[in-house]
Amino acid sequence: MFCIFNKLGMFQSLKNIAIVSSSTVGSRLLGLVRDAMIFAALGTSIWSSAFILAFTLPNLFRRLFGEGALASALVPTFSDVLERDGRSKALGFFNQVFLRALIVLLLVLVTGIVCLGVIIKLGNLSQRWVLGAELAMGMLPYMLFICLAAIVSVVLNIFGRFAIAALTPVILNVAIIVALCFGMCRNSPQSVLVWWICGGVLCGGILQLLLPSLSLFKQGWRPSLISNHRFNQSLRELWQLFLPGLLGAAILQINILVSRLLAFSLNDTAASELYLASRLMELPLGVFTIAIVTVFFPLMAKSLTSGNNKGFVDSFNSGLRLVLAISFPAGIGLFILNEPILRALFQWGAFDSSSVLKIVPLLAIYGLGLPFYSVATFATRGLYAAKNMSYPVKVAGLCLALNALLGILLMQFWAERGLALANVLSATVQALLLWIALSNSHSLLRFKHIWNALKKVLIAGSVMGVTCYISLFFVALLGMNPKFEAYLVVAFLIPVATVVYFSILYFLDFEELSNFRKILKQ
Question: 3-state class of 279 per DSSP?
Answer without folding.
Answer: helix
